[in-house]
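User: My collaborator sent over this chain with a note saying "see what the structure looks like." That's all I know about it. Can you take a look?
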Amino acid sequence: MIGRVFGYVSQRVPSLLYRVSLTMKPQVVFVLGGPGAGKGTQCSRIVENYNYTHLSAGDLLRAERAREESEFGQLIANYIKEGKIVPVEITINLLRKAMEETMQQDEKKFRFLIDGFPRNEDNLEGWNTVMDSKADVKFVLFFDCSNEVCIDRCLERGKVSGRTDDNRESLEKRIQTYLQSTRPIIALYEKLGKVRTVDASRSVDEVFGDVKTILDKEG
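Assistant: Without extra context I'll predict from the sequence alone. Here is the result:
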């Protein structure tokens, strides 16, 4: 089943993205950091102040999980509950669809914040295979925050978010997944000189001050 999705992605991605690439390739910023680092909050601020579209891999997966006719809803639910990373074929398909729909509606919307992706080596390899020639990754915006602060924030968020993974058991699994799988991806981009690090342990306004400095410099 997963293989069929990957084949579908490989066949479908060139369509619109190829046509758009004749004028402007999608410009992508990967937004990474541990659970509770404030990625979503800061992405909302960026969208308010800059011409970016925010695509949250996690939100797209949760929406697909909730969609009644989804072929992959239960599979996604199982992965999220266990704090594991959903197969890359599914995630890339959802990201691709969201990018296509955005650019179909407004051709000037070609800048994307992709939040929570790539989360592991498999994600990165999948992106490079399917999207490397279709989109330009400008840099990685890394929100660096201690595990303790991240867990405390998520537990507080869980009181009102309704998210099934905002509990201590799931959070501990998610933190371990992040440390083992996502941090090596950040380190890889650091070697390429493509990571912009922000101390995310501070207040929302202080963090966004640094984000603004980075985005103003990067253009």
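A starting point for your reply to your collaborator: Residues 147 and 175 are 7 Å apart (CA to CA).
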